[in-house]
Amino acid sequence: MSLVVGIETSCDETGVAVLRNGEQVLSNVVSSQIDVHRVFGGVVPEIASRMHTEIISQLMEQALNEAGLSCKNGRPPVNAVAATFGPGLMGSLLVGLSFGRAVACAWKIPFVPVHHIEGHLFSAFLGENRPEFPYLALVVSGGHTQIVQCAAPHQYRILATTRDDAVGECFDKVARLLGLPYPGGPSIQKAAETGDDGAFDFPRGLVAKDTLDFSYSGLKTAVLYMLRERPDAAVPDVAASFQRAAVDALIQKTDRAVKQSGIHRLVIAGGVAANKRLRESAAQLDVELFLPPFAYCLDNGAMIAAAAHSRLQHGCPLPGDTPAAASISLVSKP
């Protein structure tokens, strides 16, 4: 039996989870900082790292207690500790990475650094319906918009990325333009429920270009200019039209990637994977679709533990002294 503690502190959620055998979540504790950062309209890095420091020890204790684990006769309660090493906010990453390393050292067990995007890829394995390799993954969050080809465990090829804003970042910025609260994803989705998604014809970035890459800065700017011309525009209509354009771009590029690769298994992961319109639109694609449970779409420790377990099982854990990295690709350069 394998028990792994996963720690996630790449941005503004502190997550600690205990996973058994790579798939059974014994506990998954997440402390969100949304209410603190909402007044600023976005995450303040220094505040985020300070709050991680204040609560991470208590969350570790809570996660172990909920999993029914404790140190007995000097024996560690788990077999390994894992933590996100990047990408993310440097101060926040250092909190989780340093804490995880210290715990593993004290317990004399392996420490496994995990790439944040790889964690999201493994969130799909935490539900009852798990994908088989090979599969494509659309990773969509506040900081990432990528299509990743997953040929086998820990063998990745990035097919597409964003050339500017990530889709989640675009949601946040447009929500601010509309006077909706942070985070923008849930706010825009709620406002769009009563809106007309055909009221405004916003652009789909790079859709007409011969590339799988995404672009969201033009969509954000189009909303800005439209609001300057039409300050009386109904917020629900703008939100619905924007959400339609943002999701359409994701779906059209993903459909193109499916056809070009010939791979018809699709995982959608990351915070934006919780978006209802995205889920409904993806269900219309000619793919076998795998969506993480809502609890594992946002940043959490369970996905980090799942990725670490797999790396240990396949004999390819990253070196324990891997440094924190604010910006680092999932795929190493040759």
Search tags:
single chain, 334 residues, alpha/beta, Nucleotidyltransferase, domain 5, 2 domains, five-stranded mixed sheet
Give a quick rundown of the structure.
The protein is of the alpha/beta class and 334 residues long.
Q: Please, could you describe this protein's structure?
A:
The chain is α/β, with parallel strands linked by helices. Helix content is 40%, strand content 19%. The chain contains ten helices and ten strands. It has helices at residues 34-38, 45-66, 90-107, 116-122, 167-177, 184-192, 217-229, 235-261, 276-282, 301-313; strands at residues 3-8, 13-20, 24-32, 80-86, 111-115, 135-140, 145-152, 155-161, 265-269, 288-290. Helix 2 runs parallel beside helix 3, helix 5 (167-177) packs across helix 6 and helix 8 runs parallel beside helix 9. The protein is globular.
Which CATH class of the largest domain applies here? Alpha Beta
Q: What is the β-strand count?
A: 10
Instruction: Give the total of domains.
Output: 2
Distance between the amino and carboxyl termini: 36 Å
- Taken as a percent bin, the fraction of beta residues is 15-25%
The CATH topology of the largest domain is given as Nucleotidyltransferase, domain 5
Helical content band: 25-40%
| Morphology call | globular
Query: Judging by the overall fold, what is the CATH architecture of the largest domain?
Result: 2-Layer Sandwich
**Poorly predicted sequence stretches spanning 5 or more consecutive residues:** none
- Mean pLDDT equals 95
Largest beta sheet: strand ordering: 3-2-1-4-5
* Total of helices: 10
- Helix and strand pattern: EEEHHEHEHEEEHHHHEHEH
CATH superfamily of the largest domain: ATPase, nucleotide binding domain
Oligomer designation: single chain
- Helix and strand composition category: alpha/beta
Based on CA atoms alone, the radius of gyration comes out at 20 Å
